[in-house]
Specification:
The complex is a heterodimer of chains A (283) and B (319). Chain A has 11 helices and 7 strands. Chain A is an alpha/beta fold and 283 residues long. Chain B has 319 residues and is of the alpha/beta class. Helix content of chain B is 38%, strand content 21%. Classes of the chains: A alpha/beta (283), B alpha/beta (319).
């Protein structure tokens, strides 16, 4: 089943470029949210650096061969942050920036508020119901390992999402079956739908993942160098690996940062103007 | 006619055919949610790399199967029917059906087959749950041959499907007359005064009803529908053209299973004046303790009462 002719198209972005890419991705996310008056801005803004590092520094992928069997796979398990995924796919050349902007959450458009893999190249799986991504990622990684395919599988989930029981079913399974090349990023922003994550469930996620047999790292989820270092370290281990990325919901828009409201807020005109200024754009 | 003496577990038919299909196609893998004791050992021994006990974690099992299907494998996942259908229902719906993936859900012991084990192990609603899923095919064999052939057919037919396995009854069943196809029904006994359409392992009950009615001078056909989605509408139409009554019987709620499917078809078919009645579980949990036959009787499914209801319909109808 392997196509050995696949060559990933490396991005030209250096580690130093990631900050600028992340800023541009945030701009696109904000424009998409403002244009459609849609929510989930905070979760999308909070994962931008993780996606920028993945799509521009880590994932072995090629927009010209989006379905090549040997591509790395990324599944956005916290599907409500879809706008950031579309921004990453647009910047990386899987979809156009115009389509991300004009086809998102509009009548007859292509892109739902949660990712659908039928919508375009580069979307590996449809998500939106929390707690599904890791099982599917584990199944893909298991299949790839059985085929001798070296491609890696990544999934990004929320800290609140870790309350879903299926996450731990998958975590136990992946460790028990020694599934290598499987990495989870947890967006640990401390907020979930209706409260602070640490108050809704009082658990130590690092210990939980470790108890399931996973290699655990903690890093700053907005520091591209730290993220890349953690992802490289994860590549170096045979064990399934989780990175607890410490993030700020609503990152980049001061009035939304570290707020529950950032999950729901819809940008009005003054809010949009503030967001654009905060990101360093004049208009 | 064959196997005149024993009530046979369709799991054995499934295992025998899976050994053949896994030999034929290296992409087929079998995942179990920690069940299959004294059934799956031959598969585990013959194909240790393609058999996996994923643990008591059905949601993960279906998600993993979806991932395997995305890399070209053809997973069959297995558990007791109530768990295989409902514990992981959203994963079946979203991960498998929404993506149209080649994952087969194999559900053991539907209806009252786990009789004494209680309501947690009875499955009265799985066929309805599965029927409503877009793209899902729903198979519920009623006899050993149907279970074997369903396994064979599904292993070469890509896309989602649900296979409910029960016990094969001790009845005359002349499979030599039939060629199995997904979506096809089979006339077990012909008759002129009506047809009793059945799915799953209640063919014996249906024939007992037909026998009773014969004593009263009523000729009731019995047709087995090992597939309820897609429904064999041409077989229904053929009966509707020549008999005055359609009945359904299943080890499942009267809501949403074969009875629901046939009723929906009938209502939109343009057929006029057809008597119609569904026999199945009433809309309540059967909490009694007992054997399968006892519980079926508690649910109103015994030959005498079904036959009496059909005779009553005939006498109250002018058709």
């Amino acid at each position: 089943m392997n196509d050995m002719s696949f060559n990933a198209t490396p991005s030209a972005a250096s580690a130093a470029d990631i900050h600028a890419i992340a800023r541009d991705m945030r701009r696109l996310v904000v424009d998409m949210a403002y244009r459609t008056r849609t929510a989930h801005l905070g979760p999308a803004l909070g994962i931008v650096e993780m996606l920028a590092v993945l799509y521009f520094r880590v994932l072995e992928i090629s927009p010209a061969a989006a379905n090549a069997p040997q591509r790395d796979r990324f599944i956005l398990s916290k599907g409500h942050a879809a706008a950031a995924l579309y921004a990453a796919l647009a910047h990386r050349g899987f979809i156009t920036r115009e389509s991300a902007l004009e086809q998102y959450c509009v009548d007859g458009g292509r892109f739902h508020g949660h990712p659908c893999m039928h919508a375009g190249p580069g979307i590996e799986f449809s998500t939106g119901s929390l707690g599904h991504g890791l099982s599917v990622a584990a199944g893909i990684a298991l299949g790839l390992r059985r085929q001798g395919n070296p491609a890696r599988v990544y999934t990004l989930m929320g800290d609140g999402e870790c309350q879903e029981g299926s996450v731990w079913e998958a975590a136990m399974f992946a460790h028990t079956h020694g599934i290598s090349g499987l990495t989870v990023l947890v967006d640990q922003n401390g907020f979930q739908g209706f409260g602070a994550t640490g108050e809704v469930h009082r658990v130590d996620l690092a210990r939980l993942w470790a108890a399931c047999g996973w290699d655990v790292q903690v890093c700053d989820g907005h520091d591209p160098a730290a993220l890349e270092q953690a992802l490289r370290a994860a590549q170096a281990t045979e064990n399934p690996s989780v990175i607890l990325a410490q993030t700020v919901a609503g990152k980049g828009i001061p009035s939304l940062e570290k707020t529950l409201l950032s999950h729901y807020a819809v940008l009005d005109e003054p809010g949009y103007a503030e967001a654009i200024r905060a990101l360093g754009y004049e208009k | 006619m064959r196997r005149p003496s024993a009530l046979l577990d369709m799991r054995n038919d499934f295992v025998r055919q899976m050994l053949i299909e896994m030999e034929r196609d290296p992409a087929i893998v079998l995942l179990t949610g920690d069940l299959g004791f004294r059934a799956f050992e031959p598969i585990r021994e013959r194909f240790p790399d393609r058999f996996m006990n994923v643990g008591i974690a059905e949601a993960n099992m279906v998600g993993v199967a979806a991932g395997l299907a995305l890399t070209g494998y053809k997973p069959f996942v297995y558990s007791i029917a109530s768990f295989a259908s409902m514990r992981c229902y959203e994963q079946i719906r979203t991960d498998v059906c929404y993506h149209g993936l080649d994952v087969k859900i194999v559900a053991a012991g539907g209806g009252f087959n786990y009789a004494h084990q209680g309501v947690t192990h009875h499955t009265v609603e799985d066929l309805a749950c599965m029927r409503v899923l877009p793209g899902m095919r729903v198979l519920c064999p009623g006899y050993s041959w149907e279970a074997t052939e369903a396994t064979r057919a599904l292993s070469v037919s890509p896309g989602p499907a649900y296979l409910r396995l029960g016990k094969s009854p001790n009845v005359p069943y002349d499979e030599g007359r039939f060629t199995f196809q997904i979506g096809k029904g089979y006339v077990i006994r012909d008759g002129a005064d009506g047809v009793l359409c059945v799915t799953g392992n209640v063919i014996d009950l249906a024939l007992a009803v037909s026998d009773r009615l014969a004593l009263a001078g009523v000729s009731l056909a019995v047709a087995s529908f090992p597939t309820i989605k897609p429904l064999d509408e041409s077989l229904l139409a053929a009966f509707a053209a020549r008999v005055p009554a359609l009945y359904t019987l299943e080890e499942h709620s009267t809501i949403g299973g074969l009875g629901g499917a046939v009723g929906e078809w009938l209502a939109e078919s343009g057929v006029q004046g057809m008597r119609f009645r569904r026999f199945g579980f009433p809309d309540r949990f059967i909490t009694d303790v007992g054997s399968r036959d006892y519980l079926l009787a508690c649910a109103g499914l015994d030959p005498a009462r079904i036959a009496a209801a059909i005779l009553s319909d005939r006498s109250s109808s002018s058709v």
